[in-house]
Design brief:
By secondary structure, the protein is an all-alpha fold. It has one domain. About 80% of the residues lie in helices and about 0% in strands.
Length: about 425
Amino acid sequence: MIVGIVFLILLLLGLPVGIVLGISGIVGLASIGGMHFVELAPSKIFNGLNIFPFLAMPFFILAGEIMNHTGITSRLVVFAQVLVGHFRGGLAHTNMLSSVFFSGITGAATADAAAFGRTLVPAMVKQGYSRPFACAVTAAGSIIGPTIPPSGLMVVYGSLMGVSIGGLFATGVLPGLLICIICMLIIAGLGKRKNLPKNANRATLKDIFIAFKSSILALIMPMIILGGILFGVVTPTEAAAVAVAYALFIGTVVYRCITWADMTRMLIRTGRITGVIFLIIASASILGWWLSFEQIPQAIAAAMMSISDNPQVILLLIIALLLIVGTLMDITAMLIILAPVLVPLTEHIGMDPLHAGIVFVLALNLSLMTPPVGACLFVLSSVTGESIEKIAVELWPFLIGELAILLLIAFLPDITLYLPRLLGF
């Protein structure tokens, strides 16, 4: 009880989530056995971070920083625009398709939201879109990044739960594409009602070829990462290192636009982002150990089983819990805390570990675009100056569509497991 009270008070005071988790975990240790148990905290932090696949995260972040610096983002946007810009709401469709292309570079929703919030949102507003709608489209597309690999959330889940990260990457491809398709259908449906603009002329084959040629170096990068992992050539960590090497080659040899000063700034940004993520993971490790010691996961599992023993009802309860808690807290922290609690339940109802993993990841990704703690909403609000409330109002059609995709994936596992099975996972 005391741990929960401390946790809520610190969270309401606005402290960083990593600090909240760490203090709550230490209070939990002290409640078990006083200062003697508090001395266990450093070892729990070390054990929580001493997981080799976690090395992939800073490498993927650095690769994304380098590719952004080389101007790859604008090339991908141009390529997407020549493909779908002639439809009504063409720039909104372009935003969504660009998110698919961009996902293979960063794998982070907030990075996508920040990049397109600075580039595509102003372009959409200039063409006649309302700013809240432009931000909503960007937020809806941003969760494609951590769904289609590489995905930092999948690296964390796979590392903690002993599930193949390569297999998880394979499960994310079709759901990510389905999210893109449903969002583009929503844009098409809203096109006439909102009188969304479109390009006057359809791009010619020559235009498409020129745009493809300009963006091909960026499009190759996901192929290197995914191909290497899915076909067993490299591990996810090795693939992340290869991605950095490839991005450096593009930036220094092909485009020649990276200086030592640029590299220093990118390394500093990578260090800051990685530090925040690893602080959350380390702090959540302390709290997670306390939860296990107190057998709270078993109590939660028993409570859910007391409601119903129907596998579909239990799966709905799991999804509901992930969506509700995800609206209140950082999704990486929630994954670390809730996965050990809920994964045994998924095993009890016979879910495939890869299927359970993509349901967890996609449910938490949806939380990135729901108030009050939707990270993508905060990023877009800070970048564009639009209020979170107005963005959220325009976001509801996309949120409902993506929730439908989550439920489809949850209750039809063959959709996500087809590709992993085909590749031998």
